[in-house]
Amino acid sequence: MQKSLTTFILAFVAGLLGAWAYQQLFSLDLSLAEHQSSNTELLSHQVNNFTESNAAPPSRTPANTPVSFVEASERSTESVVFIKNFSGTDYRRYSIFDYFFGPQGGSPQQVSTGSGVIFSEDGYIITNNHVVEDAETLEVIHHKKTYKAQLIGTDPNTDIAVLKIDAGGLPAIKKGSSRDLEIGEWVIAVGNPFNLTSTVTAGIVSAKERQINILGGDFPLESFIQTDAAINPGNSGGALVNIKGELVGINTAILSRTGTYTGYGFAVPVDIAAKIANDLINFGEVQKAIPGVGTEEITPEIAEKMGIESLDGVIVNHIIRNGAAEKAGMEIGDVIIGIDDTNIKGKGSFEEVLSYHYPGDQVTLHYLRDNQKKSADITLQNLHGGTGVIEKAFYSSGLLGAKLEAVNTVDKDRYEIDYGVKITALTRGYLSELGLGNGFILTEVNGEPAEDPDEIGTFLEEYSGRLVLEGITPRGRVFRQSYSVR
C-alpha cells in the first residue's frame, strides 16, 4: 500500500512538472513567432521606403536562386539538326573481279552521323569538316523531315564546314559573341550524341584559347573554348550556347582515352566559325589574312635562353619572303605581344585575332626586340601574296581522283619554289595509282613548268606515252619519276 502511494505521488509531481514545461515552451514559441513577425514588418517597411525612394533594385540574382537552362534549351534545340554522312564502298578492299562485275555480295554502305546548326533561315547550316568528310551523300534531318544537303565548302584549318538545304523560314540560331564569353560562365552543349536527337548538357567555360593539336590543313587555327559540358560522339558540329540560348561555339572535340566524354570538350568560337562560314558562302574560299611570319609559343626554357621577361606573346621563328612582316622590317626572334589594342597571350590568341581580319586590312603589330618595345604597321596579305579577295580555283577530276590547285605564297616560301600545282582531296584514281599523295606538288611535267591547274589536269587526263613527273613531297623531298602510260 505504501509502495502504491509513493508511485502515485511521483506520477502526480511528474505531471505537474510536464505541464509547467509545456507552458514554458509554448511561451517561447510564441515569443519567437512574435519576434519573426516584428522583423517581417520591419523588413516590409524598409522595402516600402526603398521603393518610394525610386532607387534601382539590386541587379544580382540571390545566391540561392537556381540557374535554369529551360529557356536556353528551348531556343537552341530548334536550331540544331541531325546530319547523316553516307559513304560508298571502298573498292580497294575487293578483288580485281569487283572492278568488272561490281562488288560481290552487295555493296555495304557506311553511315556516320553528327550535328549541325542552322546558320540562316534560308537553309545554310554550319557543322564540322570531320562530320562531312568523305561523304558521297549528305542528309539533314530537322523536325523529323529529311533534306538532301549540298556541301558548300569546308575548312580543315578550323574543322568548319557549311551545308545548304532547300528550305526556307528555318529557325536560325541567334548568335552571341565568343570574344565576350568569360571563364566560369554557364554554357549548354546541344546535339545528337549516340543518335539521341536534341540532347542538352550543361557545364561551364573552363578555359579559352586552348590548343590541343588535332587539326589538319596547311594553317591549323586552334583557339578552342574548353567546357565541361558533356560532349560525346554525335555532338560534333552541334551548338554550344550561353544561358540566353545564343550560339557561342561549334562543338568539335573531346579529350578522352575511351572515345566518350570523360571530362572536357572543345568548341570552335562562334566569332571564328561565323567568319569562316560567311567566307565559304560568299567566296567559296576562306579569306585568310596573313602577316608574313611563322610563330611559336614561348616556353620557360625559351624565355630563359632568350632573356625574355614574360611568357606572354609569340616568338617569330620565320619570315616569309616578300611578306608584310619582312617589308615592315621585322626579324626572327621578335616577340609579338599585341595586335592593335589586343594583347597576345599565346599562339591561340594570335591566330584568333588574325582570323577576324581580311586581306588588305591594316593592323599594328606590337613586339619586343631585345626587350625593347617596337611597333610595325602592316597590310595583311592573302595566300597568293596580294591584298584582294581570293576565289576558289581548282581543277577537279574524277579520272585523276583529285583536285589540283596552284601553290600559295606560304608553300612557295616553304619549299623555295616559284610555281607548282598542288594535289588535294586525293581519292582512288589515276594519281594515287601513280603513287602520288595528298599535298604533293608537281613542279614539272615532261620537262615543262607546272603552273596552271587546268592545263596540267587536262594534259594528264588525255596523255599517253612516256610520262615524266617532277615535284616535291609534303616533307620537302625532291621527286622525279618516269612512267609509261596508255
From TrEMBL:
Domain of life: Bacteria
Record-annotated PDZ domain positions: 306-371
Keyword Oxidoreductase in annotation: no
Transmembrane in keyword set: no
Any one of the GO BP annotations: proteolysis
Gene Ontology molecular function: any one: peptidase activity
Keywords annotated in UniProt: Hydrolase, Protease
Protein name, UniProt field: Serine protease
Organism annotation: Echinicola rosea
